[in-house]
Amino acid sequence: MATGIDTLISPAMVEAKGRWSEVRVSPPISPSDIRRWAIATYWPQTPPPLYWDEAYAQTTRWGAIIAPPDFNPFAWPVRRTPPPAAAPPAGGVRLTAMNGGQTDSFGVPMRAGDVIFARSRLSDFNERQGRFGLMLYSYTEILWTNQNDEFVRRRIATSIRY
To answer: Is the separation of the CB atoms in 134 and 8 below 8 Å?
Structure first.
């Protein structure tokens, strides 16, 4: 518990705020990737044909199969890179962390052949007094675009530390 501390906001957090990470690049999305993701996420039901049936998908406004909105082309990397370290809080205090939730916004659907570019940043933070004392809320923005620089997805993830 962070007691006796005036702030959990460190100079490193202030420095990191708003700075975009290096861009991560997905491998090209294959029709098989989309079908397997749809089967896994809809199991045991049959996924909508828009995600696996090319003949059906050609009759829709999309003209081809598309990925479900929750599809993640970064889910199975060959090489795993560690996630960027969260900027440490001030005072050198070891904090308890919990997931404060996330909000997603979606743009164009992902399609077979797309390459997705992802970058992230610490977009904001604030402190509040809570039941456990001083609590630090930090917000990480993750932005995905495709090879045409079209907006695909934005996630705002909230982290709570106390």
So the answer is: yes
pLDDT tens readout for residues 76-102: 766 766 665 555 555 666 788 899 999
**Residue 50, pLDDT score:** 97
Domain 1-29+83-162, CATH class in plain words? alpha beta
What's the number of CA atoms in the CB half-sphere (13 Å) around residue 79?
4
Q: What CA–CA distance (Å, rounded) separates 39 from 157?
A: 26
Range list of β-strands (E), the chain: 24-25, 97-106, 116-130, 133-146, 151-161
The structure's pTM equals 0.83
Q: What gap in Å lies between CA 36 and CA 44, rounded to an integer?
A: 13
Spatial distance between the Cα atoms of 40 and 35, rounded to a whole number of angstroms: 9
Domain definitions of the chain by residue range: 1-29+83-162, 30-72
